[in-house]
Amino acid sequence: MMGKARKCNAARRSLPIAAVLAGLALGGLFPQAACAQYPTRAVRVVVTVSPGGAPDTVARVLGDRLSPLLGQPVVIENRAGSNGNIAMELVAKSAPDGHTLVMCADSMIVINPHMYAKMPLDVLKDLAPVAPVAEQSNFFLSVHPSLQVKNFQEFLEFAKTANPPMAYASAGNGSQHQMAMEMLKSRAGINLIHVPYKGGAPATAATLAGEVLAMFSAASSVPQIQAGKLRGLAVTGRKRSLLLPDLPMVGEFYPGYELSTWIALFSPAGVPDATLMRLRSEIGKALAVPDVAKRFTAAGGLDPANATPQEFAERIRADYEKYAKLVKLIGATVDN
User: Fold this and answer.
1) What's the rounded Cα separation, in Å, for the pair 129 and 264?
2) Is the CB of residue 307 less than 8 Å from the CB of residue 90?
3) Do domains 2-136+260-330 and 140-252 have the same CATH topology?
């Protein structure tokens, strides 16, 4: 027992995101160490959004499958507010033992630090990546049917000449919805007015009602597009959507334009690597269960994510740098 305890105490603790990236530059991470049994009690997953949002749905679907694999309950706790900063700060200050995790969308890790003048935590130092859980390869550009444009090219021509400029909806300042449109504005040389809402659902409702005429949205808006309540024009991914294959990619018109998103679990910095290894192993098993993919798809066109820790760290770095440039370009900010 004493030998096992000494091994646990000597186990290298998990690296925050910044240290993971530095480790990759040096050629990899240190060997993993064996540690005592984990978990020893319920695992709490703090979710950055209200019930019903994509990270919440993903957390609950994953939790259902993860609990029996870990042999402990997985408890979901919603702490919405401040674009996820409240939940992330809470977890960053929790005991680094793997029993408290945060489920958040990529924007909270790679966009928030560039939007907020003062962050309550350093996401690259105070949090450590556990694993990506879900990803969405496309956002959908759609307009209200009253707008007399039939395709993407006509939308661009209309936006170039509209006076006053057309308004577009987003899920909030710093959301991927906003980033998608601002990227398009920059590439196409068009001007639209940003109208932020408190989430994707109210933004979609406002577009359906004609309060605003355009928006980028997740796959949750596909039923409205298929029903003719919205007119779909284009998608943001590297491939056309299987849901609406007739819609072109924005990248077909503007090479290099691409926007996709991920949802992932993070822990406080300092969790033993052996604990993270156990978590990653069981998460991988849970995501491989067939009904998980079906439930993710039903929740808004999400797919289970698949990436090694090194691949995920590289994705974080690339996205962090991409959005740093974009936020600076558009001058976007969020009041603290």
Assistant:
1) 8
2) no
3) yes
C-alpha 292 chain-centroid distance: 18
- Spell out the CATH class of 2-136+260-330: alpha beta
Q: Where are the domains of the chain?
A: 2-136+260-330, 140-252
pLDDT tens for each residue of 171-209: 888 888 999 999 999 999 999 999 999 888 899 999 999
Contact 238, 137 (CB under 8 A): yes
Task: Please give the span between the terminal C-alpha atoms of the chain, in angstroms, as a whole number.
Answer: 50
Asked if residues 218 and 301 have their Cβ atoms less than 8 Å apart, the reply is: yes
> H-type helices in 93-235, by residue range?
106-110, 112-115, 123-126, 152-161, 176-188, 200-208, 222-226
Residue 116 is given by DSSP the state B
Average pLDDT over residues 245-264: 96
Fold topology of 140-252: D-Maltodextrin-Binding Protein; domain 2 (3.40.190)
Model confidence pLDDT, tens digit, residues 207-239: 999 999 999 998 888 999 999 999 999 999 999
Both tokens of residue 319?
């996205």
What does the alpha-carbon distance between residue 275 and residue 277 come to, in Å, rounded to a whole number? 5
Q: What's the burial of 215, exposed, middle or buried (CB within 10 Å: 0-12/13-18/19+)?
A: buried
Taking every pair of Cα atoms in the chain, the longest distance, rounded to a whole number of angstroms, is 76
Predicted confidence (pLDDT) at residue 62 exceeds the cutoff of 60:
yes
